[in-house]
Amino acid sequence: MANSSSGQPPQLSASYLAEDISGQLLAATTVILVITTALVALRFYARSLTNASAGWDDLLLPPSWILVVGACTTGYLAVAHSGVGHHLQWVIAKDPDMLITRGKILYTLGLLTALANAASRCSVLSLFLRVITSRVTRIATWVAIIYLILLAVAQSIVGLVECKPIAYFWDPSIAGGTCIDQFLFYKLNGFLNIIADLVIIILPTHTWPCGFMRTDRILLYLGAGGTRRPTM
Fold this sequence. Notes:
Helix content: 55-70%
Largest sheet: 2 strands, antiparallel
Shape: elongated
Oligomer: single chain
Distance between the termini: 71 Å
Radius of gyration: 22 Å
Number of strands: 2
Number of helices: 8
């Protein structure tokens, strides 16, 4: 390995460059896609067993699923065509142009993920509105829905224009290009998404009707609670 004081980049071992987690990424993406598709199918099957009218929770499911499929497909493309799963140095050594492809794919993936998260979470919260009777919790649920919509809009806008010019996101060779603090942006996104998940978990825990057993609650999640509708 070269001496760092010489100003030359350190030589990377062949074993380091050969490291590859693309198989794990493909497996994880496939698991997400299969589980999501199965749950959506079960949800619609359960809904077919009730006479309840369709609500926003039902209407939001198809676009949510389409966005998830789009995000997973983008993940497959990232592994297949941009070297995701390999070290950056491996990608540069194989084909530097792959870095531009990687940037374009990740740019698209960020937008799809933001919209998929918002649509799926709003679907769950809309389901809560069909089964929760507590006025305070219903107000909190509406606040959470507004929060998710605003979060998705903010994530989409900032994600689309985080670099100037936009192409600088995937082509850092553009002279004069600048980006926001991307690490801070992604870290803040993660924190705000965790808050949303915690709210969705906490909201219904203390508001289920007393007579509902655990099995009933699971069926409500799948079937949108067709037997009970709260009054406004």
